[in-house]
Amino acid sequence: MPKPAWLRKRIGVDTINALKVEHILKEGALHTVCESAMCPNISECFNQGTATFLILGDVCTRNCRFCAIKKGKPESTDPEEPKKIARAVESLGLKYVVITSVTRDDLPRGGAEEFRDTVIEIKRLNRNVNVEVLTPDFRGDKEALFEALSAGPDVLNHNIETVPSLYPTVRPMADFERSLNILYWAKEYNNDIITKSGIMVGLGETDEELYNTFKMLADVGCDILTIGQYLQPTREHLEVREYVTPEKFQELERLAYKSGLKYVVSGVFVRSSYFAHKGYEKILEVKNRCTDS
Q1: How far apart are CA 221 and CA 181, in angstroms?
Q2: CB 132 within 8 A of CB 196
Q3: What is the DSSP letter of 243?
Q4: E-strand spans in 102-237?
Q5: Per the domain annotation, does 138 fall within a domain?
């Protein structure tokens, strides 16, 4: 399907900030989801000196048909990775950082300990850094999720990615209800934690399915939602069924707010970690207004 004009975007990692990010990542042998998932916003984020760190290696044990991250048998985890990431965060002078991972179904608790340790190490060096963890579903293990949250991240992000009817095609090894539970359990563990999710469009979903999904997210207390266009990484991945117009993204944003979600970012190039600090700041503003009133 030919790409429309609104999908044109320059990609070039060529500023001093971007070169600094690349140097620090290479020096620490660290991975980012920006590179591994072929994110269209990589130049914008790197050029501003930010990146979303990818822990537990760069090989995923699942076979999601939309994702560009490598699939297969992962290598053993690096016990020094949490400290390396904390030093990278300090070197980059980040005030807000997103930590995500490949899905590691081969590990006993899905990598929950590594999420916990990474948050601990980041906050040990600078307690003023806000940390968002974008976690897998830990195979529905509530205690694993609680372990990841025990270090006190500021935001729990877990992407549902698509509507329930498309899970067998898009995410055959995942489960929609299991993903909803992750968001619900996060509030059960700490009602004050900000929760967040993301969804792609252009895979064949209907407006009614999207609206129902938005309402289900609101019902489990999800605070923030990102909505973006699915882009086919390679010919081996799912084909794009529709290129959603910028006007339609505005309509989807309206529907998401109508469903009860507190903060919504909807647009062609929107991704879950894109300017993540803005959503966090907006929710804090809402909470502060409610407290003051």
Answers
A1: 11
A2: yes
A3: -
A4: 130-134, 155-157, 194-201, 224-229
A5: yes
Please report, in angstroms and rounded to a whole number, the separation of the first and last CA atoms in the chain.
51
Q: Is the pLDDT of residue 252 over 60?
A: yes
Give the Cβ contact number of residue 18 at 10 Å.
20
Residue-number span of the structural domain to which 190 is assigned: 11-292
Confirm if 48 and 34 have CB atoms less than 8 A apart. no
CATH number assigned to the domain comprising residue 250: 3.20.20.70
- Of 13-27, 48-62, 153-167, least confident by mean pLDDT is 13-27
Q: What is the DSSP letter of 161?
A: B
pLDDT of 49-99, one tens digit each? 456 889 999 899 998 998 888 899 999 999 999 999 999 889 888 888 999
Whether 3 is covered by a domain: the verdict is: no
Number of domains into which the chain is organized: 1
53 touches 28 (CB < 8 A):
no
Classify residue 53: in a domain, yes or no.
yes
Task: Report yes or no on 4 lying in a domain.
Answer: no
